[in-house]
Amino acid sequence: MSPEELERVLETARMPVSITEDRVERVIDTVFARIDAAAARPPRGWAALLAAMLEPILPARFAYILAAALLVGISVGRFVEPATTSGEEAPSAESAEQFLPLGS
Amino acid sequence: LGEAEIADDDLLIEIGKGNRRAFRVLMLRHAPAMLALAQRITRNAGDADEIVQETFLKLWTSPDRWQPGGRGLFSTWLYRVVLNACLDRRRRRVPEPLDSAPEAADESPDGLRLAISAECRRVVEESLEELPVRQREAMSLHYFGEVSAVQAAQILGLSLSSVESLLVRGRRALRDSLMRRGIVRMGDVI
Fold it and tell me: Angle CA(B72)–CA(B57)–CA(B84) in degrees, nearest 5?
């Protein structure tokens, strides 16, 4: 096949395209409609809900990170044992009391 | 400044703040070229519309995908995003066997010309799929996206000589692939 023949094949394969203003407007309207539909949809899941609550005060990308951090904090926090308050295991609290009068 | 004179980068800053008017101006400016590129590559108006809509939607949700002030223009970056989406979609599309395609009812000279053109496109596309990615991108942009070699170089982020070299190798590979299919001249297509 000669280079000229290849060019002829490629030229024949090329699709003539004309884009009308109506079509451009339709595409733009669809984009806006999809943006509005996404905004109207309630957020799904805890992370998305938290992100939606945080979004007015934070940029979207930080809102998601903070929401994820909050979720991790809440999940891990449930397994943390409350600190013991017995005198034997908390000597520092005792000693702090002893120094109290010094400042007064 | 009139809307037509506002730079793309300035519009994108406004889009980042949620300015729909700026987004509309940007879409009006670029959608026609992007639709034409997508339609030439996918050969399907519906697919082209969807690809362009998706591209603009992504831009609205994360306008910081485009980093202004770097090398190149926003339009070349947009070309690249649309081109990749088109090639991706074309790769995933299941080719329709010729036998199952509806019979062409139009027997006028124009109808015949369109039928030859469609068959030619099908054969060329199948051959293009065999090319390495970079060659395929350069060939698709140059021959079907109707952009110059200089523009293709900007869109692909390559030097002009690299794109020219890709086009030379792409033409050679395409010619070999067509010849393996028994196509030596235009008359062999149908």
Answer: 50
**b/e code B153-178 from CB counts within 10 Å (16+ = b):** bbbbebeeeebbebbebbbebbbebb
- B144·A17 Cβ contact <8 A: no
- Tell me whether A12 touches chain B (CB under 8 Å): yes
For B52-103, the pLDDT digits (tens) are: 999 999 999 887 777 766 666 888 889 889 988 988 887 776 655 544 444 5
Question: How many CB contacts within 8 angstroms connect chain A with chain B?
Answer: 88
Tell if the pTM clears 0.90, that is, is over it: no
- What residue type is B42 in one-letter code? T
Query: Å from A56 to nearest chain B CA?
Result: 12
Closest CA–CA distance from residue B158 to any residue of chain A (Å): 23
